[in-house]
């Protein structure tokens, strides 16, 4: 899959309640906003990149990429961010990453794209662990841009759960060995903890 046909979307539209209602993506981590770390890791993997944010728009715009607010009102969660990304996506595919995961894999998009293609799937989702420890990370996903009507209908019917939305689609689960690459920094304690650890 040609990376120029993939748009990257950084999900920064939440309230950051677990971090004391601060904007997580703008919290400094190793001398730069967390979302900027994500941007630097994701942008070489895609043709275009944009950010979904619902507050502090100007600081995000200072990163030099388009910033879009949720089309739905009321902080409706990551699926609302995905919908917004799909509305503004001009490529065939869209890949997402949350703004609070600065360690995301440098081969995330390539491997999700391979999984999507090999399985002839609608969506590829990152997965870590096996057996009882298996965990899907649906906010790290690659989707066909043509899924916009399907997602919009789900949201209009009151759906908010990522996994329930894609349960009716052809899903490729792509296994990654490095669980640490998907850890997200949810609290100020996490921010301090990972400031100095690899």
TrEMBL record:
Catalyses which reaction(s): Mo-molybdopterin + GTP + H(+) = Mo-molybdopterin guanine dinucleotide + diphosphate
Alphabetized GO MF terms: nucleotidyltransferase activity
InterPro entries in the cross-refs: MobA-like_NTP_Trfase, Molybde_CF_guanTrfase, Nucleotide-diphossugar_trans
Pfam families xrefs: NTP_transf_3
Primary site of residence: cytoplasm
Compartment annotation: Cytoplasm
Cofactor(s) named in the record: Mg(2+)
Ranges that cross the membrane: none
Residues that hold GTP according to the record: 11-13, 24, 52, 70, 100
Residue ranges occupied by any MobA-like NTP transferase domain in the UniProt entry: 8-164
Signal sequence interval, chain numbering: none
Enzyme class: transferase
EC number(s) reported in the record: 2.7.7.77
Residues engaged in binding Mg(2+): 100
Keyword list, A-Z: Cytoplasm, GTP-binding, Magnesium, Metal-binding, Molybdenum cofactor biosynthesis, Nucleotide-binding, Nucleotidyltransferase, Transferase
Stored NCBIfam families: molyb_mobA
Family matches, as PANTHER family: MOLYBDENUM COFACTOR GUANYLYLTRANSFERASE (PTHR19136:SF81)
Similarity annotation: Belongs to the MobA family.
Free-text comment on this protein's domains from its UniProt entry: The N-terminal domain determines nucleotide recognition and specific binding, while the C-terminal domain determines the specific binding to the target protein.
Quaternary structure, from the entry: Monomer.
Function: Transfers a GMP moiety from GTP to Mo-molybdopterin (Mo-MPT) cofactor (Moco or molybdenum cofactor) to form Mo-molybdopterin guanine dinucleotide (Mo-MGD) cofactor.
Annotated protein name in UniProt: Molybdenum cofactor guanylyltransferase
Provenance organism: Herminiimonas contaminans
Gene behind this protein: mobA
């Amino acid at each position: 899959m040609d990376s120029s046909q993939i748009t990257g979307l950084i999900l920064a539209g939440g309230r950051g309640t677990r971090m004391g209602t601060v904007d997580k993506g703008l919290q400094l981590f190793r001398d730069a906003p967390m979302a900027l770390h994500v941007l630097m890791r994701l942008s070489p993997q895609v043709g275009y990149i944009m950010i979904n944010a619902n507050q502090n728009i100007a600081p995000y715009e200072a990163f030099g990429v388009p910033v879009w607010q949720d089309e739905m009102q009321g902080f409706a969660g990551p699926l609302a961010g995905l919908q917004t990304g799909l509305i503004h996506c001009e490529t065939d595919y869209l890949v997402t990453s949350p703004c609070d995961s600065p360690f995301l894999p440098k081969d995330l998009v390539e491997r999700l794209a391979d999984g999507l293609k090999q399985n002839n799937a609608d969506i590829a989702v990152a997965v870590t662990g096996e057996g009882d420890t298996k965990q899907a990370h649906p906010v790290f996903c690659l989707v066909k841009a043509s899924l916009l009507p399907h997602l919009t209908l789900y949201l209009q019917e009151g759906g908010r759960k990522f996994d329930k939305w894609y349960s009716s689609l052809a899903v490729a689960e792509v296994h990654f060995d490095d669980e640490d690459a998907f850890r997200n920094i949810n609290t100020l304690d996490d921010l301090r903890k990972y400031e100095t650890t690899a």
